[in-house]
Amino acid sequence: MNKFSIFFFIVIYLLIKINNGQFIALTPETSIVATAINPIFRKYPSASSDNACNIEIRILIEVPVGISISGYKTSRSSIPFSIQSVQDNYYLFSNAQSTHTFGLISQVLTISTSDNFQQQYQLDTTCLDADTSKIRLDGVAKPISFLGFFIYYIQIGGLEPVGNFESMSCETASVQSSSFSDSYNYQVIITQTGDNITREYPIKIDFNSGKSFYFSLDSYFSFFDEKDLPTTHFETFFPSNILSSTSNFTQMSNGYDPLFTSTLNTKIMRPYQAINDVITVPLRGSKGNMTFIGIINSIYSGQLFNSSFITGNGTLTDSIIFTTKANVAPFPSFTYVSPSVQYSQSSTGAYFFSVSFNNSIGYPFSPFQYSYVSSFYEEWPFGFYYGTNSNFTNKVNFPRLINRSSYLYLSYQCLTLTSGVVLTVDPVTSSGTSPLLKSYNFTRITNMNYLLTLNIESIYGFKGIKIQYGIDEILSTYTLVAGTIYNGTFEFVVGLTELDRLIIYDFNLNSVNYDRGTKISLNPFIIYDTPQYLYYNYNFTNFIDISFLKNNLDLNYESDRYNIIYINSTEIPHDAPLKFIPLDIVSTPFQRGDSYSLIQIPFIYNTTSRLFECRFILPKNNMFGEIPFSISVGKNMLYSNGMMKETLVVNNTVLDFQGPIFSSFEKIGDGLEISTTGTIGWKFNITDDLNGFESGYIKVMGSVDSSTYHFDFTIDDAIGGDKFNCQFEILINVSQPCVSQKYRIVQISLYDTNKISSKFVLNGGTYSLLSPFINFLGEGVDITILPFTCTSSTMFDSKPTLLSFTPSKTIIDVGSPNRSISFDFSIDPGANGIKRDQLPIVYLTTINTEVSKCYSTLISYNPNSAVYNCSTELPLNFGYPGEIAFSIYGIVNNGGYFYGYSHQDIQMVKSLFLNTTVSDNIPVIISSDSYYSDDNGEIIIYGKAFSNVNLVSITYSDSGLSPNSATSTFFYGSSAIKISGIKKTEKLFKIKVSTSDGLISNEFSIQPIYFDRSLGPIPTQSPTATPTESPTATPTESPTESPTTSPTTSPTTSPTTSPTTSPTTSPTSSPTSSPTIPTITPIPTNAPQKCQGNPECGGKNQGYCSSTGCICYPPWIGITCSSQIIIVPQPSINTTNPQVEIPTTPTESNGQSSETSSEESQKMIFKSLISLVSLRELDFNNKEVNNHIFDQWIYTPINQFKNQYFTTISNTNITATLEWFNQSSSIQFANQNLTMSPSSIKYTIEITKYQFGSSLNQLQLVMAASLTSNSNDICSSNQFGNTSTGDDSNYLKIQIENHSLYGRFIKRAVIDKTVKSVNNVLLDSSLNIIDSSSSLQSYIGITIPFYGDSIIVDPDFSVLVDGESASDQDNSICTNKKSGLTTTQLAGIIVGCVGFAAITVIITAYFIVQKRKEMLLFKTINNKMNDLNNGK
Predict the structure, then answer these.
(1) Per-state percent for the chain, helix, strand, coil, to nearest 5
(2) Which of 212-221, 243-252, 1175-1184, 1393-1402 has the weakest average pLDDT?
(3) At residue 161, does pLDDT exceed 70?
(4) pLDDT confidence of 1194, banded at 50, 70, 90?
(5) What is the pTM of this model?
(6) What is the rounded average pLDDT for all residues in the chain?
(7) What percent of the chain has pLDDT over 90?
(8) What SS3 class is residue 134?
């Protein structure tokens, strides 16, 4: 081997060491280019005890057009190395090591092509083995108590900084990664047991090969003074005799066990107390006198059972055994006899099926779950076709799928029971072609909501999407913004935290899944990924400086319930999806077994206070002590902990966590014999000592015929008492003819004024702690049953005859605001007549297994005819596309039988159909953001078909407010509108929208949430370094003065003064209404920049530092916020060509023309010139193929501020529209919201179809920008780079002395009616430029990829005055400029450079190879992969 070869391999070895030996080409890439896609080369196993890692590296390989890969292999034959997909001349490979052993594994990957070329790469991956001798515990945060668990955050050191173990193997606790890498990187969840509740809790974490790491955590209870721990307790039992050996307790229903309460003198909210290892639940009381409730389990019917009860007594515990005996109510059985599926076809050709079964054991009054295309729950009478409760036939009807790739099953399950039936429903034909996702795009609406735009092709029509694991519903409410359901662009409004998986469905239920990282296209390279902030690298330390507007609360005062939580962080992006989740026991009644949804309130960044803020309302009569909460941080959940500057504390309150209960319960007409008529029912008292009773619901059903009675009542319906102790009665009239049976209560729901419930569900099994019958457990279920006897009672089967059935329409537009439909039908009651108080229900069912109910009213009745009518409004997109099936259930005769009519039965009376259509152009308002009574008049509404809306109307229920129109609107595609101009109100108001072609939406009601802001000033902090805002937001306001005092509970570090200089202008108009344009590829975002300037970002009054660089307050601009926009008169119109000359005189620091400057400076004049030069065609190597010089233009004035120029080159039309902005304005271009500065000029250039020489070629629009001065003894400089303001653009700044011409070049364009990225390049090195101290010219090329029909680009320019002279710039050109260096210094630099050159040659040799690789790959796939990585 010669010396050069040895030298070469030494250099390669050094470079491998520098790059951690991860993935490099072993020989220079000439025709093959390979790139590892988002790789992780070094990692720990998923769990600490695992002996191997799972490492998969995906590699994108490009070969020349016309060449294919003929072979591939790895030097490690045991490692799978395979092709995942191929598109054109791109190949995606997978190197999957599911059992990567510890240490380094090095592979040589060999790729062979059809032209006999061979390329080799080295791939190095490492599975890290933890060295337990170096592991240490660096920190522990004070824990919180939540749901009977204790949650700690700990920091484990001594591990390599490559990401955490997902979980630590531990038998005594759950140790999971906290998803924070900077500190407190693990979350430990434990339950405390043992005799001494204040002792340390030992933790042992297991690693592979028997290694372990030991440490201890201080007990949760050790953080309290011993005097605050309970020392006494007193128990009360329900029923009171349950501990007696003679007790004969019987459950009211299966699962309703005996209860007990325990009263303690505790001064901590969560003392140690458990029965059978289940933590008791706080019920009522205050600090020092709290009552808890628990369940005494009944496991063995009729046998003695010992329950272990442990309760804290100081630092020790008392252990007590409860011995009980209970008769367990049997769980009802249920059978499905002769289940079957039948198929039918309507006269219109639509297909239907029905599923039926028989039952002869009995109906247990439980709902059924139906699962086919989707799932839903329905109670009696749906499907009850014929019979009595003890012997009946059940039959349901649905439209049938025509095509399906595989068999679909109908699951039919009686809830609360273990039995169910699954039946195969055959499709008419089979087909399995899945829909195709061609592109996607996310557009931010709020921090939590995004507009998801999908471009989809589907043979059977696009149905909808699923976007969250475990959610059965297919989202089918979308806006079709272009094309058809078979090949179109669709918009959805989606929640950011639900986007890990995207599943796309067609109308035949064929689907395709896209998880994060799933390939969509190789050319251009597109993978599915979520918006970057969902998996942003958040740090634990970002969430330490937390404070509250009010703290140490007294909830006996209404005002203390209204609060604001603040996060003070300079590193969290302003668009971060942060949510506040209160975890007080009233907001999260998990332990009571009640259903609930987490309250999740988004944070909003306040540009005035420089804090993240979230308003919340703490429920009254709540827990005392430290109120647990969590902050949702992207995909992470951070619980409150001792490291936070403030935790939320309630000092004074009285807890009421018990729902309303019965204090008396009496039967009316128990065992009544009815010869003509009679009345039966119940009379009861409801007590709720603190919150007071608000509303209730009781459902009663007949034991023979399932006659159903619904009783809804509120405190206003009470026949005596007040909300703390009120009396009610519910009555049922019974008349002959009738059958003897029992009416029984099957469901109860009672609510107090704090929405705390008590519930009873027959055979429900999960509501023991919620039972309103806590005072009557000893009386058993008998108090809920009312038997009565009908004289001459005879069961009589006489099915009524359906005489007529008429829908109000046969075609319904389920995409419009008006989706109402009504039905008229009549029945011959039959010989025995029907119960008039049992009103049948018309059910509408769809191919999507949806159901909609139409509740009827009785219009007239005689022995021969009962006439009914019902009206309902169908859900949006209900049943589309296809027909809807009808059925009628709930007819009960006087002889104890119930009946129904299936879809086939109705068709036999009259051939009917109800078909569905969807209008895509009629606006529909579906939802809105929450609106608080103290909001600033802005709200975002969501819906569909908003693109042509030109009027938003607002009406108020407050009689003192007159209707008005929105003062401004901002559109997010066609699916959301941000509106302004809502008047201050605490009462309900309504919004509707109208389009330019006269279409009107539904009227949408919004009830403001009352929020009391009279609590004190909001803490204010001066704008020090803060993170980036969203690309659509710019600071529009900076206070000249903040409150001189802050609330005593607000952040103590918040300065009391703000910037003393306010922006002189702010946007005065909303962005123009514009629908979102489809986006083919991910659009590039600018990489984070280091903040520059002295002072940094111009100082606190001119800008602040963010994670992307300096963010400037208007009118300041630039990467250092030291340039100021100059307000100048509108320039003269050039009627020859689109060239703009902007003359400028010297200015003061405020950007206005100077009236007091010296005579010499007044003579100095600056001229800015902007022009369109040419259109160049470039080949794939960026070599010029054609250059079309613009010379002749046709001028057309449009208005005072806008002019248009037209020219033609080679049959291609170029239209340039120049618009002058004399004030700050918001605009939208290519789905991007932009702010136009005052005195700026915007070029909108449209280019029609161009005849390319090759599909690999591209166009480059060349623009020239120059700045000249009439003075000679001055300096000039120029800059070109990325903006830092969040608009993801390039900027060009040409400066002479302290004046500049500033151009903004957006990195996106509208190409073939879709948004694509473009590349802006500085052409000064390849074109002839003017370069002197008093005159400077630059050329910018806007490089546009190959296209078909049209392109639109949109640069803009402003004139600036600079706080720094051009002479201060490193690249400045001056009339007389000396180096300022001595001869010795120059000599030293020269010698140093010669020494450094040797190293440079080596590095350059390597990087030439790398550059060739990058040029070939990135030019071909149009920078998409790199842009995607930057955007993550």
Answers:
(1) 10, 45, 45
(2) 1393-1402
(3) yes
(4) confident
(5) 0.71
(6) 83
(7) 50
(8) coil
Model pLDDT for residues 984-1043, shown as the tens digit of each residue: 999 999 999 999 999 999 999 999 999 986 653 333 333 333 333 333 333 333 333 333
Q: What is the pLDDT of residues 733-752, one digit of tens each?
A: 999 999 999 999 999 999 99
Length of the chain: 1432
- Secondary element (H or E) of residue 1006: strand 1004-1006
| Structure confidence by residue, pLDDT tens digits, 584-637 | 999 988 777 777 778 999 999 998 899 999 999 999 999 999 999 999 998 888
Asked if residues 1202 and 1217 have their Cβ atoms less than 8 Å apart, the reply is yes
Token pair 């329905």 is found at 378
Residue closest to 120 by CA, chosen among 1, 4, 34: 34
The residue among 1031, 1012, 1017 whose CA lies nearest residue 566 is 1017
Cα–Cα distances in angstroms (integers) from residue 548 to residues 378, 639, 645, 879, in the given order: 45, 16, 10, 48
Per-residue pLDDT, 1273: 66
Residues 6+ apart with CB under 8 A from 987: 956, 957, 958, 1008
Which helix (H) or strand (E) segment holds residue 143: the answer is: strand 136-146
931 within 8 A of 1006, measured Cβ to Cβ: yes
| Neighbour-count burial for 926-960, b at 16+ CB within 10 Å, e otherwise | bebbebeebbebbbbbbbbbbbbbeebbbbbeeee
How many Cβ atoms from other residues are within 10 Å of residue 334's Cβ?
18
The one-letter amino acid code at 418 reads T
- Alpha helices by DSSP H, listed for 356-467, are none
The backbone torsions φ and ψ at residue 15, rounded to the nearest 5 degrees and listed phi first, read -70, -35
Pairwise CA distance, residues 408 & 850, whole Å: 16
pLDDT of residue 1330: 61
- By the 10 Å C-beta count (0-12 exposed, 13-18 middle, 19+ buried), 1395 is classed as exposed
**Could you read off the pLDDT of 1069-1118 as tens digits, one per residue?**
333 344 556 655 556 677 778 888 888 888 877 888 887 788 888 778 88
> What's the CA gap between 1032 and 1012, in Å, rounded?
30
Check if the beta carbon of residue 1260 is closer than 8 Å to that of residue 1342.
yes
- CA separation for the pair 451, 467 (Å, rounded): 13
Alpha carbons within 13 angstroms on the beta-carbon side of residue 1417 total: 25
- Cα separation, 444 vs 1428, whole angstroms: 16
CA distances from 1154 to 3, 93, 774, 1132, 1159 (A): 70, 65, 84, 21, 11
CA pseudo-torsion sign 852, 858, 862, 867 = negative
Contact 340, 357 (CB under 8 A): yes
For 882-936, how does the pLDDT look when each residue is reduced to its tens digit (9 = 90+)?
899 999 999 999 999 999 999 999 998 888 889 999 998 999 999 999 999 988 8
Do strands 968-972 and 1184-1189 pair parallel, antiparallel, or not at all (unpaired)?
A: unpaired
Angle, CA of 374, 376 and 377, to the nearest 5°: 160
DSSP character string of 1355-1377: -EEEEEEESS-GGGSTT-EESS-
Residues 6+ apart with CB under 8 A from 914: 807, 809, 810, 811, 812, 821, 844, 883, 884, 886
**Cα–Cα distance, 1114 to 1091 (Å, whole number):** 18
- For CA atoms 747, 753, 755, 758, give the dihedral sign: negative
Could you tell me the pLDDT band of residue 1333, with boundaries at 50, 70 and 90? low
What residues pair up with 233 in beta bridges, in sequence order? 264
Of 283, 248, 244, nearest in space to 266 by CA: 283
Whether the CB-CB separation of 807 and 821 falls below 8 Å is answered with yes
Residue whose pair of structure tokens reads 């402003």 in the numeric block: 1358
